[in-house]
């Protein structure tokens, strides 16, 4: 009986508390309707359950802000500002690289600065040429002309190697980065938005992983269409499986952080199989090893990023100290962008190598 009574008392306190919370939400709703919305940042404990994701970030939460205010908060300081900008910055870098790449394709005037600041493709050109290729004559030209030969895709007029697989990755990466930025910006609007945007974010990550497989597999297995189809189909099926799995609303919660991280890592590391196969197939080709070295750096970047994502370091060491800047998710974002750029470098190396040896 005593227990029942105690239970009843606890229930009453809980009911009173939840009534209080409900009332404060109602007041907030009224203010919104009256156009009197105040851009107030909340503490973790004041958040509704569906917004509680990281208990080590204690303050500066936007909660159920009207859409317009949530959108414009990209220019104000809260605990998602740097999460938005780290990926928005990555999106801009990829956008600029794509524009430069198009300019490079259409005119040779931009060769001087195009990818040079990031990684020089032209200095790799001699490495990518087969020793007794018909191209060796073509290579006895100036630095600028070499780039022109690669970019016009016509190698001794024999075969054209398409550039689209490279753009599949760039578009996939940009799509993922923009989805992530939008999710961090707008998920605070409502429960419905929260659910929708986090699932969009996970779909974006899956899309980027699948699209990043396209260029290396396409170019490495250019002369082995069966293997090329097998690997591309496998990663696409894996990506679709990941997206369908992550569409389950329950899997968007904090409890499944490890599960999501493992799923993405498994997708990424499944690339070890085609990579090993490509090395065996093209043993002795220096660009394959250069590309592989970039991919290993990429794997280290991604794995380190995921390590921060699941461990929630450093905020777990000093809760509240990294609310605005320096928390694990921001560090994870920076590693994702670094990994994607490194993969882009690997992609350009293998694409240039294939353009230099287009005959099977
Ligand atoms: Zn994120």
TrEMBL record:
Entry GO terms, CC: membrane
Pfam families linked to this entry: HlyIII (PF03006)
Entry annotated with the keyword Membrane: yes
Protein's UniProt keywords contain Metal-binding: yes
Membrane topology summary: Multi-pass membrane protein
Residues involved in Zn(2+) binding: 184, 329, 333
Residue intervals passing through the bilayer: 84-103, 167-188, 200-218, 230-251, 263-283, 289-310, 331-351
GO molecular function: metal ion binding; signaling receptor activity
Annotated InterPro entries: AdipoR/HlyIII-related
Keyword vocabulary terms for this entry: Membrane, Metal-binding, Transmembrane, Transmembrane helix, Zinc
Protein name, entry field: Heptahelical transmembrane protein 2
Species this chain originates from: Coptis chinensis
């Amino acid at each position: 009986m005593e227990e029942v009574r105690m239970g009843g008392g606890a229930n009453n306190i809980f009911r009173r508390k939840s009534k209080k919370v409900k009332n404060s939400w109602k007041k907030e709703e009224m203010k919104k309707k009256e156009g009197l919305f105040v851009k107030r940042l909340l503490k973790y404990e004041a958040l509704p359950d569906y917004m509680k994701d990281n208990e080590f970030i204690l303050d500066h939460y936007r909660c159920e802000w009207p859409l317009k205010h949530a959108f414009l908060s990209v220019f104000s300081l809260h605990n998602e500002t740097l999460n938005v900008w780290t990926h928005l910055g990555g999106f801009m870098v990829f956008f600029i690289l794509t524009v430069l790449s198009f300019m490079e394709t259409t005119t040779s005037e931009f060769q001087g600065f195009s990818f040079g600041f990031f990684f020089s493709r032209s200095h790799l050109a001699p490495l990518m040429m087969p020793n007794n290729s018909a191209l060796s004559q073509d290579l006895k030209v100036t630095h600028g002309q070499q780039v022109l030969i690669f970019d016009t895709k016509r190698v001794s007029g024999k075969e054209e190697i398409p550039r689209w697989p490279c753009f599949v990755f760039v578009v996939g990466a940009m799509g993922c980065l923009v989805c992530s930025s939008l999710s961090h910006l707008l998920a605070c609007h409502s429960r419905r938005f929260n659910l929708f945007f986090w699932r969009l974010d996970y779909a974006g990550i899956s899309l980027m992983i699948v699209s990043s497989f396209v260029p290396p597999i396409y170019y490495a297995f250019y002369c082995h269409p069966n293997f090329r189809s097998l690997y591309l189909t496998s990663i696409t099926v894996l990506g679709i499986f990941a997206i369908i799995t992550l569409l389950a609303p329950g899997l968007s919660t904090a409890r499944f952080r490890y599960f999501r991280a493992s799923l993405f890592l498994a997708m990424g590391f499944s690339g070890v199989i085609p990579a090993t196969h490509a090395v065996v197939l093209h043993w002795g080709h220096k660009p394959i090893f250069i590309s592989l070295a970039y991919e290993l750096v990429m794997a280290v970047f991604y794995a380190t990023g995921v390590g921060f994502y699941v461990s929630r370091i450093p905020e777990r060491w000093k809760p509240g100290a990294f609310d605005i800047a320096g928390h694990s998710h921001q560090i994870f974002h920076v590693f994702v962008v670094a990994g994607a750029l490194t993969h882009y470098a690997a992609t350009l190396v293998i694409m240039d190598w294939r353009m230099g040896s287009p005959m099977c």
